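Curious: why these numbers?
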Amino acid sequence: MRILAVSHSAIIDINRKLFVELAWRDHQVMLVIPSRWKNEYGRLPLRPQPLSSAPPKNFALRAFRIGMAGKTSFQTYFPDALLSLARWRPDAVLVDEEPWSIATLQWAAFATLLRRPFIVRTNENRILSKSRGARPLRAPRGRGPQPRVG
């Protein structure tokens, strides 16, 4: 399967593990990252880091110039990136971004125009509450999720 993956956080090598693992599992992966990213932790913008180890042959990394680099919700990819990636003809589009971001909306439209499945992976749906009365949802054996009240 040809997977087009998009992630601003994958500008840093350690955040590419999922995408490299997909390539090791015999998927052809094209990972799209910004060519630079402003961040609150340093004065200089981040630039794409080289891969720390040799990637599989079916893994490619493409950096594109984006608008509003560093503004997670408002980052935008320019049309030249979308047009050149449409020529690659992915089987699916996997976005690792905030679901409410403009970039996620752009890639959803891109996948829709190509008539390809669109997947959003995000950390926002994995936050556990540590508040005093909260209990995690647990699935009883074989019955699916059951909310606990109490």
